[in-house]
Design goal:
mainly alpha; about 160 residues; two-stranded antiparallel ribbon; 5 helices; 2 domains
Amino acid sequence: MNIFEKDMIEARNQHEKEKRKGFWKKLLTIGILNNNDELDRSIQYLNDCSHDLDRSKSLKKEANKIDQLEETILAQGIRISKYTFADVRVLDREYYPQDWQQLRSSILERDDFSCQEEDGNCSGPLQIHHVIELSKGGSNNLSNLTTLCKYHHSMKHPHMQRNL
């Protein structure tokens, strides 16, 4: 059973739980209270999981036809794992290797401790950027990492722009 099938089971269970909770809430409050918002959210989650499962099955068929996994990973709007979605940043430290600081130092040294953008508008401390984001299937390999100043890094990630 894959992660999407497990999510579907979890979503169905959650939806059934919300339906039972709503029944008892209405019964005990003589119809005054309900849990329509929670029920709507559980229906939406169930629909999202169903869409993800269908999409993963479709991708699996497509992946069997192509040689490069990268084509599948870069397809927009694909959920790659339970906690990682395309176009959503990865915040969890578990995605970074234990030797991240050493790897970071290697990248900075390789890039001569300078931003790799060439427009001359650099500002802020140097940061390490994943060329293909972790959330889109990128890795922590040296070839996928580059040095950017805070300004240019935030230009690559709109969610970082409010921190400038």
